[in-house]
């Protein structure tokens, strides 16, 4: 087969077509990047010299430099929104703690990631009155969109890669950050009016931001991506029936907004054992799922490809719980071949690690993963 461009490779795979090799993503979304300490070691290993730029403060994941992307022949490029600039709740609390524009508070320790420790609806502030009194960040804030169109056009003009618009985090995550993880889950059962209204308001804000972004760049992008974790290692985060009643209608509104604003494919990041929701995802128009956490229950590549491979594409799937951090480079290469042979057959697969590459992954294993993916083509 003739060599393809990155854009052709990614879009062909998402159409479930045969491609010259499996497409490679590295840093094309907020959930397919690399932790900054691992990135520094990877730069040293490859002999690359450039500044390490943090792309998302919360996760401490980096913006992959163009020299690194070209080294691994990566087929994707991220297009991220800018930072909120208006009057909001954001503030620096101390050297390890900050509040974002929603007044969700984040704290780190040393080189560790930021963890959500507080929010505007924590504790007893869980009433409808609290919700109605809350001042939301302005979804029309110019900081989100400053230079977005120009950056999109530059990517389209200067690369032949698939451009991925990273839109804001999803509504389940946002509700948990504003209310507290455990409390929001309890609200689904014991404070349902509040839980439902919170999700509705977050969805309204999210849709307005996305509409603005797509007005600017809808014609220049190939994929849209957002994250909303719905799984644990063993099961969905809550009963799938609750998902269908309380969350899915809002996810459907969100996906409809993405589809109406561009012809781009839709990519949902959702960690854990989420295959019980795949039919729901397909029904509302999700084209691909990430990270394909292969060591979670029911997420075996063979099963996923057999049951959903003609209706859903898979993005990720190279194990970060054992193989990447603890395997040898040859074991990593073997895993790349194994997963590519399963998920990459007849298209429908974009290769990346399961979630952002973490601090414990040796640089030689990262290089082995991407180099093997570049060199290997599965039998069709």
Domain count: 1
Using the alpha-carbon principal axes, give the shape: globular
Largest sheet: 7 strands, parallel
DSSP strand content: 5-15%
Sequence of strands across the biggest β-sheet: 3-8-9-10-11-12-13
Number of contiguous helices: 15
Task: List SSEs in N-to-C order.
Answer: HHEEHEEEEEHHHEHHHEHEHEHEHHEH
Radius of gyration: 20 Å
Termini gap: 11 Å
Annotated CATH topology: TIM Barrel
Write the CATH architecture name.
Alpha-Beta Barrel
Q: Classify the oligomer.
A: single chain
Under the CATH scheme, which class?
Alpha Beta
Overall pLDDT level: 97
Helix content: 40-55%
Sheet/helix structural class: alpha/beta
Unreliable stretches (pLDDT < 50, length at least 5) are none
Count of individual beta strands: 13
What does this structure look like?
- It is a single chain.
- The mean pLDDT is 97.
- Strand 4 and strand 5 (97-99) form a beta hairpin.
- Helices cover 42% and strands 14% of the residues.
- By secondary structure, it is α/β, with parallel strands linked by helices.
- It has one domain (6-85, 120-375): TIM Barrel (Alpha-Beta Barrel).
- It has a seven-stranded parallel beta sheet. A four-stranded antiparallel beta sheet has the order 4-5-6-7, covered by helices on one side. It has a two-stranded antiparallel sheet with strand order 1-2.
- The chain is globular, with a radius of gyration of 20 Å.
């Amino acid at each position: 087969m003739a060599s393809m461009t990155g854009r052709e490779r990614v879009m062909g795979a998402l159409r479930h077509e045969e491609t010259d090799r499996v497409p490679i993503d590295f840093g094309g979304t907020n959930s397919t990047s690399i932790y900054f300490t691992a990135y520094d070691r990877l730069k040293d290993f490859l002999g690359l010299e450039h500044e390490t730029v943090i792309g998302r403060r919360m996760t401490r994941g980096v913006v992959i430099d163009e020299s690194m992307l070209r080294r691994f022949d990566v087929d994707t490029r991220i297009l991220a929104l800018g930072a909120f600039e208006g009057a909001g709740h954001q503030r620096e609390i101390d050297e390890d703690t900050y509040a974002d524009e929603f007044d969700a508070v984040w704290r780190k320790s040393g080189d560790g990631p930021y963890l959500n420790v507080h929010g505007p609806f924590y504790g007893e502030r869980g009433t409808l009155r609290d919700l109605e009194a809350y001042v939301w960040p302005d979804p029309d804030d110019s900081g989100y969109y400053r230079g977005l169109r120009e950056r999109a056009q530059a990517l389209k003009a200067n690369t032949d890669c698939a451009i991925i618009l990273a839109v804001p985090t999803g509504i389940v995550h946002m509700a948990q950050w504003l209310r507290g993880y455990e409390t929001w889950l309890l609200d689904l059962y014991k404070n349902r009016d509040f839980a439902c209204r919170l999700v509705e308001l977050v969805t309204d804000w999210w849709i307005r931001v996305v509409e603005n972004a797509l007005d600017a760049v809808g014609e220049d992008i190939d994929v849209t991506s957002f994250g909303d974790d719905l799984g644990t290692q063993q099961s969905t985060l809550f009963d799938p029936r609750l998902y269908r009643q309380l969350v899915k209608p809002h996810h459907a509104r969100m996906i409809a907004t993405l589809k109406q604003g561009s012809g781009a494919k839709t990519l949902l990041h959702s960690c854990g054992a989420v295959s019980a929701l795949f039919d729901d995802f397909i029904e509302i128009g999700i084209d691909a799922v990430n990270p394909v956490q292969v060591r979670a229950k029911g997420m075996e590549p063979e099963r996923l490809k057999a049951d959903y491979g003609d209706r859903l594409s898979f993005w990720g799937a190279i194990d970060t719980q054992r193989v990447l951090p603890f395997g040898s480079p040859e074991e990593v290469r073997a895993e790349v071949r194994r997963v590519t042979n399963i998920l990459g057959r007849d298209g429908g697969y974009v290769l990346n690690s399961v979630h952002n590459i973490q601090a414990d992954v040796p640089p030689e294993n990262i290089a082995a993963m991407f180099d093997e993916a570049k060199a290997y083509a599965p039998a069709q």
